[in-house]
Amino acid sequence: MNILLINRSDLLGGAAIATTRLMDGLNAQGAQARMLVIDRRGEHQQVATVGSKVGNRYRFLAERLGIYLHNGMNRDTLFQIDTATHGVNIIGHPWVDWADVVVLGWVNQAMLSLDDVKRLTTLGKPVVWVMHDMWNCTGVCHHAAQCRAYEGTCHSCPLTGKQGEDLSSSTQRRKRMLYKDAHIHFVAVSHWLEQCCRRSSVMHDCDISVIANPFPTTSFSPVTSAPNVWNVESGRSVMVMGAARLDDPVKGLDTLIATTQHIATKRPELARRLHLVLYGGIHDSSLLEQLALPYTYLGYVHDLQNIYSHARLVLSTSRYESFGYTLVEGMACGCIPVTTGDGGQVDIVKHRHNGFVTGSHDPAHIAQGIEWALDAGITRQSQHQWVRDHFDASVIARQHLTLYQSLLNDNNFKQSI
Questions:
Q1: Residues 23, 80 share a domain
Q2: Does 288 share its domain with 312?
Q3: Domain range holding 256?
Q4: Which CATH number do you get for residue 318?
Q5: CB-neighbour burial class of residue 268 (10 A; exposed 0-12, middle 13-18, buried 19+)
Q6: 158 near 138, Cβ under 8 Å?
Q7: Would you say 284 and 278 are in contact if contact means Cβ atoms under 8 Å apart?
Q8: 162, exposed or middle or buried, with CB in 10 Å at 0-12, 13-18, 19+?
Q9: What letter would DSSP give residue 283?
Q10: What is the pTM of this model?
């Protein structure tokens, strides 16, 4: 089976990494998988760029300019919105002709327009769209947060700054027309994301499967002992929290700070058992001074295995996550996860079995979860095995291949194209 994956980049961003891992997993299962991108960062021979450097830059800037002029020239929301008005027409590319199945990933920011997607669905090949966030089921946003307008008609979007009909309205209509006229099978990377799509006015009737993101389990091992590289006091366990940007409001740094302050003042015996390690970018590092527990801040890192091998817990205070890669990474190294459970994390963490789901952002509840995890007695090997059984790239690739084969064999699909 020849499979063509399409994503904006091969390595830049979580969706890019997940798509590259999927490609590698499919090839390891005996399929032939390749990827087309407009932003190639790696040296993978099965990844190629489409469009010209100048043309891709023009399309990117033209789409951003349209958003910028519409949102009152507000730079703060410029990259929180995508309209899919510009993209590369890849019809006629030899790899498109070669493919039996076309798999879309994160194709915003001038990779593919909605019109380009429509063209792909007319080729007589199954088109699968892997959703890494909520964008497919909303108007223009990638995460709706507390907004529920996407369940009906998007308008007056706070990200556009317009009242009434706006970019969210027009983009939602374009998506509705595309999904109505084109045969696309969608894949949600978590049951939470699937449920969002089922509530969406543009996607509630779409064909949707749930297949998690693939994970390279063999690259993360459950080390049972490691040297004390951060001079952690004797008797303290390391708890790790990381993000691409720690002070992104979605990641809940304010919740973490409040939790450390609660533990320090209300649970001093628990405070004496913890050392916090943080990694990732942060715009305002002074925020970390509010942490009330001993901590080490590492900045941007590449060797996650080394970090998690020193830790006992991995924490997520995110307000929503489509999947929850940091939890999987930590568990693959033997850590016990504690999470608020907002989003796809509940597909990863089974409450009081392999971790703790607090169900709220209440610092007292999070402190309870942390104490439970410290005393749970779960082995590092069992955590690693859970990830291997459920999220290993080979497991996920086989699920994808089963889906692709069913689409190729689907007579109803063949009659609709």
A1: yes
A2: yes
A3: 217-391
A4: 3.40.50.2000
A5: exposed
A6: no
A7: no
A8: middle
A9: S
A10: 0.92
Number of domains observed in the structure of the chain: 2
If asked whether residues 243 and 121 sit together in one domain, one would say: no
* Integer Cα distance of 38 and 52 in angstroms: 8
Question: Are 337 and 239 within 8 A, CB to CB?
Answer: no
What totals of helices (H) and strands (E) does the chain contain, helices first? Answer: 14, 13
Q: If 0-12 CB within 10 Å is exposed, 13-18 middle and 19+ buried, where does residue 270 land?
A: middle
> The dihedral of CA 95, 96, 102, 108: what is its sign?
positive
For residues 178 and 302, state if they share a domain.
Answer: no
Residues 71 and 106 in one domain: yes
Beta bridge partners of 278: 241, 297
Q: Name beta bridge partners: 239.
A: 276, 313
Q: pLDDT per position in the chain (417 positions), as tens? A: 999 999 999 999 889 999 999 999 999 999 999 999 999 999 999 999 999 999 999 999 999 999 999 998 999 999 999 999 999 999 999 999 999 999 999 999 999 999 999 999 999 999 999 999 999 999 999 999 899 999 999 999 999 999 999 999 999 999 999 999 999 999 999 999 999 999 999 999 999 999 999 999 999 988 766 667 888 999 999 999 999 899 999 999 999 999 999 999 999 999 999 999 999 999 999 999 999 999 999 999 988 998 999 999 999 999 989 999 999 999 999 999 999 999 999 999 999 999 999 999 999 999 999 999 999 999 999 999 999 999 999 999 999 999 999 999 985 555 444
Instruction: Say yes or no: 311 and 343 in one domain.
Output: yes
Separation CA 315–CA 246 (nearest Å):
12
44 and 172 assigned to the same domain: yes
Two tokens, residue 179: 């999904």
Residues 115 and 175 in one domain: yes
